[in-house]
Amino acid sequence: MLVALLLFPGTSPWGYQVTGFYAPTHRYGRPQEFMALVNAFHQQGIGVLMDWVPAHFPKDTFALAEFDGTHLYEHADPRQGLHQDWGTFIFNYGRHEVRGFLVGNALAWMDHYHIDGLRVDAVASMLYLDYSRKEGEWIPNKDGGRENLEAIAFLRQTNELVHHYYPGVLTIAEESTAFGGVTKPVAQGGLGFDYKWNMGWMHDTLEYFKKEPIHRRWQHDQLTFPMLYQYSEKFISVFSHDEVVHGKGSLILKMGSGTMTEKARTLRSLYGLMWLWPGKKCLFMGQEWGQSAEWRYDQSLEWHLLQYMDHEGTQRAVRDLNKLYLDEPALAALDNDPAGFQWINCHDAESSVITFLRCAVGGDPIFAVVCNFTPVTRDGYRIGLSKPGRWVEVLNTDAACYGGTGAGNMGGVTAESTPWDHREYSAAIVSPGLSTVIFRWEGAPVSATAQASPDSVPELAPVATPVVEPAPEVSAPSAEKKKRAASRAKRTKTKKSDGA
């Protein structure tokens, strides 16, 4: 997903105060070169999404502000037309010409540049007339409410037309309120977006991880509460650029642990939770290896940090989480269906541990996830499981290859007929400190006679007992056979001596 793509003045707005809606910024090349870039991505099977900003525009007189000397695109009344937070103008969505300009702009990026999706910025500010305003600073709608009915109609129209003319293109809302139906179809009374950024999950989760591990037990609900609304919309779990600017600190430095190594271990455990939590995933650039500095628009990313294991290991973990997500349909197929998720235990606040299952289509539990957000390694920690047999450890964010301690489960565990966590089966596992461990169910139990010894590599599936056919009887060679064999051996020896 590309930010700062539309033409904007200066450098500091990062592309969110747009002066040229129909042109990519000239800072990186000509429009034809941008077309070539998108085409190159497509040839590699990579879709291209872009930030789109129809919520407001700057006051620059060379752009849309008072375009013909009157308030053409914006409201004349500042109670409707002035954005309090950003000092920008708000579009007058009640004008057909303004809606036509913006809808046409969205379609143009698909038509001319083959963009695969729009992430629509600041949707919350579009939905409410009293957004960031005090009493008396806003005008109610025709029904006396606070909803911006014209903006809602515009968003619905845009989503309908984008999906009509370009099926498969995604529209994503950056929306931070409890406005209902953001991702419901327009025909069902929704706004028609494909996905919504899960801002609530992001804020609650980051608040939890900012705490020192010893204090996290008192904030346990911040991990579990987001599941109460997880399926109210089609969500994308996200850590956006807004969280790593303006003195907020980088993602890795937000982690409430001591040393940089502990922070890196904590960040990897957070990514493990994020990737196994229902919903799609989105990181801002540099977060995949745990950049230490805040993002700055006028500086390069800290690529040099990849020489250190704390950062290289984090990048490796994200790579392997991505591969797991791509290889295992169960992790995405039911992202928007409650049947794809089951808590094992969400109440162990004292240990700061949560455990849950991810299920395949049909509700069959496939993955068991154990998150331990304290530095204490818990050996013999028992978790309830819904299936007997072998559960293979497919990813451990505290593995040595990621820069972790290397504590783990020696390849996996076997579920026993010991009821636990209201489930028929259970297993005693090693839960490394500051880790997320992912187990995958591999089938029925191995029979007692076929189980490997403790010192050998455990079997991953039942081993059938081979059928051994009796060997045929071999009679002793006769005297004549012995004589012929001796003659052949003599001739062979003579040939070697003569000619070799």
Present the secondary structure layout.
Layout: E1 6-7, E2 20-24, H1 31-43, E3 49-52, H2 78-81, E4 82-83, E5 88-89, H3 96-113, E6 117-120, H4 123-127, H5 149-165, E7 170-173, E8 195-197, H6 199-210, H7 221-224, E9 235-239, H8 251-254, H9 260-276, E10 280-283, H10 309-327, H11 330-333, E11 341-345, E12 353-359, E13 365-372, E14 378-385, E15 389-396, E16 412-415, E17 425-431, E18 435-441, H12 479-499
Parallel strand pairs: 3-6, 6-7, 7-8, 8-9, 9-10
Antiparallel strand pairs: 1-2, 4-5, 11-12, 12-13, 13-18, 14-17, 15-16, 15-18
Give descriptors for this structure.
TIM Barrel, about 30% helix, elongated, about 500 residues, alpha/beta, Immunoglobulin-like, six-stranded parallel sheet, about 20% strand, six-stranded antiparallel sheet, disordered C terminus
CATH superfamily annotation of the largest domain: Glycosidases
Shape: elongated
**CATH architecture classification of the largest domain:** Alpha-Beta Barrel
Q: How many structural units, i.e. domains?
A: 2
Distance between the termini: 73 Å
Spatial extent as radius of gyration: 31 Å
Enumerate the spans where pLDDT stays under 50 for 5 or more consecutive residues: 444-500
Structural class: alpha/beta
The helix/strand series, from N terminus to C terminus, equals EEHEHEEHEHHEEHHEHHEHHEEEEEEEEH
Q: Quick check: average pLDDT?
A: 88
Estimate the helix proportion, in percent: 25-40%
CATH topology of the largest domain: TIM Barrel
**CATH class bucket of the largest domain:** Alpha Beta
Strand content: 15-25%
Tell me the major beta sheet.
6 strands, parallel
